[in-house]
Amino acid sequence: MRNKIALAVVGMTSASVLMACSSSESKFADELKAAGFGTVQPTTETEKKTKKVGTKTVKSSTKVLEAVVRVKGCDLEFEKVSGQSGYWLDELHVNGQEPEWPGYPENLRKQQVETLLADSSQKPAGFTSCYKP
């Protein structure tokens, strides 16, 4: 009987963790859709860090939400730290590569991204092979 109860508690905890992750992802996707982006493909990544403080090692982790959107033929990856406001343009996905976007522009709406793609500012490697004005 105790094993069944313990198994049920573990199952409910796992389900609530998965729902929390998907909830954060869907909120980020909704935020990007509100900014004018169409199809949004959200994912989650956890960055783990360890730091030595005296004789102890302190471990911490940060949940980073990622979402890929397609604009003018280019797959762009936006990132956001879970629980914080704002997001930034992180990478361009092209030819199996993921070069980082110079300057990491923040909180862009779709129209601003289209303007950024069309202007003469610095772009990551491979940009010209995907961009279709």
UniProtKB/TrEMBL annotation:
Signal peptide residue numbers: 1-20
Key words of the record: Signal
Protein name: Lipoprotein
Organism: Kibdelosporangium aridum
